[in-house]
């Protein structure tokens, strides 16, 4: 029985006893009342009642306390059951993690065992390879002795022995090559096993630290990417993929055979003294090979450094040339001997026409051949065989035997040209020549960027000069009419628009001058009076239309369709199918003039900008919109009006 049931029985029994006692007392009182009992009996009865009331009070308190303790006990039991459930869940998770931990340990043990076996097999294969090398060396020495000996040519036995030795030597070489391949495979397998063991150890440690599997995979990917980048840095086959200048020249050593690369690395690590002592202890043939290797590498590095120095001198001269056309010609005629080839050409991309043009104005299409691959992949290419380079604008195909093609990018990493190095004098382009091409291509990128900046600066200065000339003409105006003529002329010239509505603002009126015709003459605005295009009598109009709305708001406004605007007034506002810019000229927080001009995409500045045919025209030129140009011209007009203060 539970504690709750025992408490309920005790309270029930106590209640029954008190009721029974109360009934007996009630009967005694009735008897006493009937028998007219004395005061002493009454006092006894009163004492008994007091005792009974105290007992009842204690019983009620006990009942309350027992009820409170009963509720506390129920809460404790509920908490105990919840904790027991959580314990079961945690125990299940712990068992799962323990199982995973055991599985990982088992895998690690298996991999370590496999790794030891592979390492043992690797040692055996290495030893066997050394024995085979020794056998091959002995056979070659025997063959040299036989060849150096002066035996009669008709000796059949010597010929047969010589033939057998040559066959045995070739067989041993093939076996050696197979063993070397097996060693390379076991080495890769050994590295892979080491990486897997390391990864599993990291995973085990991270699981202990409650790190998520996603974070573990990210860590492994970062490590693999770092290792891959480190390998690519010294890989000679990755020169064109990186397309950057290398931090060192280790790729030249890594391009050698494995045994020769080891010798060169020994020289770097041990120094010349230790290397010389080691070589002197070798066989005569090994000494001969080492000397040949060192001397050939010395000559190779000497040739490499001389060509780099030659390139440096040519690049310094190239940097001093200002014209892009002359720079392209310089590249075409002064870098052929560096690459030992027939063609070194810089092609500039005209993105609007979809063609490439060279220094002699030769134009080719970009939709065929190797040029189209460079345009599509945006990466350097090395074509080692006879291939189609491109088609010219007359659809005549151009072919090359071997070619190196480098993309040239501008400031926004958009293709602006292609550096072509083709038709090598030898059968192929070496890693050194690929590296020379990377250096020259990167320098060409800087030349292109400099050319773009120079031409943009020229266009900017030309625009600023036009604004200054306009300001000068504004200041020489003696009357408001002359100022109006100058303003109209320069707005037509700079903004290349013929429909212009310009109003001086005075109080609640617009002041303008009547214009006959739609444009000025092609030369200067000074002939405008003689041709009768502008009448010198002012026209005073009341404020209305969209121009009045702009004056009231004191803010610039662009209306896409003038006639659909509810504020449009045909006597004031321009009626144009193009979007119209309404610009207020404000001085001292007062609108002193307002003008309306249609927005054209090809203004004078846009035309000048499009003349810079370097790369995509969408990113070449001044970053100034039509609104900005109109605002700059409006500021110039405001300063002139403030200085003149004409009536």
Care to describe what's here?
With 647 residues, the protein is of the alpha+beta class. It has a domain at 460-644: Beta-Lactamase. It contains 18 helices and 14 strands. The chain has helices at residues 3-35, 39-148, 156-208, 213-233, 239-242, 250-254, 258-270, 272-280, 284-319, 324-334, 336-339, 369-377, 431-475, 480-495, 528-531, 545-553, 604-610, 626-644, and strands at residues 341-350, 355-357, 363-365, 381-383, 387-391, 397-400, 403-409, 415-424, 501-506, 509-515, 534-542, 557-559, 580-587, 590-598. It has a 6-stranded antiparallel beta sheet, sandwiched between helices. The termini are far apart. The relative contact order is 0.05. Keywords: Coiled coil. Residues 73-114, 159-210 form a coiled coil. This is GAF domain-containing protein.
Q: What does this entry show, briefly?
A:
The protein has 647 residues and is of the alpha+beta class. It has a domain at 460-644: GAF domain (Beta-Lactamase, 2-Layer Sandwich). Helix content is 63%, strand content 13%.
Question: What best-fitting shape do the alpha-carbon axes yield?
Answer: flat
Distance between the termini: 115 Å
**CATH fold group of the domain at 460-644:** Beta-Lactamase
Oligomer: single chain
Coiled coil: 73-114, 159-210
Keywords: Coiled coil
Protein name: GAF domain-containing protein
Organism: Paramecium tetraurelia
């Amino acid at each position: 029985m539970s504690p709750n049931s025992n408490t309920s029985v005790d309270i029930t029994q106590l209640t029954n006893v008190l009721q029974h006692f109360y009934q007996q007392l009630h009967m005694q009182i009735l008897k006493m009342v009937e028998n007219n009992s004395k005061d002493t009996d009454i006092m006894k009865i009163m004492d008994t009642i007091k005792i009974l009331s105290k007992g009842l009070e204690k019983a009620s308190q006990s009942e309350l306390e027992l009820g409170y303790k009963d509720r506390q006990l129920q809460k404790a039991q509920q908490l105990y059951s919840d904790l027991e459930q959580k314990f079961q869940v945690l125990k299940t998770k712990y068992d799962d993690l323990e199982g995973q931990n055991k599985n990982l340990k088992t895998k690690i043990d298996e991999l370590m065992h496999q790794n030891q076996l592979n390492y043992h097999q690797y040692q055996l294969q290495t030893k066997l390879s050394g024995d085979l090398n020794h056998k091959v060396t002995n056979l070659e020495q025997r063959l040299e002795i036989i060849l150096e000996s002066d035996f009669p040519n008709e000796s059949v036995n010597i010929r047969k022995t010589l033939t057998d030795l040559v066959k045995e030597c070739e067989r041993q070489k093939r076996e050696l090559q197979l063993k070397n391949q097996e060693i390379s495979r076991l080495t890769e397998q050994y590295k892979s096993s080491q990486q897997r063991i390391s990864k599993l150890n990291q995973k085990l440690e991270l699981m202990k630290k409650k790190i998520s599997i996603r974070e573990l995979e990210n860590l492994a990917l970062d490590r693999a990417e770092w290792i891959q980048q480190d390998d690519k840095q010294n890989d000679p086959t990755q020169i064109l993929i990186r397309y950057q200048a290398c931090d060192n020249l280790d790729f030249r050593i890594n391009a050698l055979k494995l045994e020769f690369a080891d010798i060169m690395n020994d020289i770097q690590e041990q120094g010349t003294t230790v290397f010389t002592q080691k070589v002197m202890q070798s066989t005569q043939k090994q000494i001969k090979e080492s000397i040949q290797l060192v001397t050939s590498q010395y000559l190779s590095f000497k040739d490499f450094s001389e060509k780099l120095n030659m390139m440096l001198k040519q690049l310094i001269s190239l940097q001093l040339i200002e014209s892009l056309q002359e720079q392209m010609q310089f590249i075409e005629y002064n870098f052929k001997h560096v690459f030992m080839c027939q063609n070194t050409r810089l092609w500039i991309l005209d993105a609007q026409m979809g063609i490439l043009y060279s220094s002699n104005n030769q134009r080719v299409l970009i939709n065929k051949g190797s040029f189209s691959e460079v345009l599509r992949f945006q990466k350097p290419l090395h074509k080692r065989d006879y291939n189609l380079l491109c088609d010219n604008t007359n659809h005549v195909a151009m072919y090359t035997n071997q070619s190196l093609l480098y993309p040239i990018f501008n400031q926004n990493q958009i293709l602006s040209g292609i550096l072509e190095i083709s038709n090598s004098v030898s059968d192929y382009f070496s890693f050194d020549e690929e590296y020379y091409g990377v250096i020259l291509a990167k320098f060409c990128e800087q030349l292109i960027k400099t050319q773009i900046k120079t031409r943009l600066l020229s266009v900017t200065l030309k625009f600023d000069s036009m604004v200054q000339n306009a300001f000068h003409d504004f200041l020489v105006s003696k009357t408001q009419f002359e100022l109006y003529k100058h303003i109209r002329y320069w707005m037509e010239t700079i903004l290349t628009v013929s429909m212009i509505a310009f109003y001086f603002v005075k109080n609640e009126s617009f002041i303008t001058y009547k214009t006959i015709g739609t444009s000025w003459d092609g030369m200067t605005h000074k002939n405008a009076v003689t041709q009768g295009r502008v009448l010198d009598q002012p026209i005073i109009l009341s404020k209305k239309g969209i121009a009045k709305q702009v004056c009231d708001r004191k803010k610039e406004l662009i209306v896409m369709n003038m006639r659909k605007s509810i504020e449009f007034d045909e006597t004031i506002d321009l009626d144009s199918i193009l979007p119209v810019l309404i610009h207020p000229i404000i001085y001292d927080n007062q609108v002193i003039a307002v003008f309306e001009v249609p927005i054209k995409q090809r203004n004078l500045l846009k035309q000048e900008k499009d003349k810079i045919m370097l790369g995509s025209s969408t990113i070449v030129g001044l970053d100034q919109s039509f609104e900005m140009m109109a605002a700059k011209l409006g500021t110039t007009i405001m300063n002139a009006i403030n200085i003149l203060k004409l009536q």
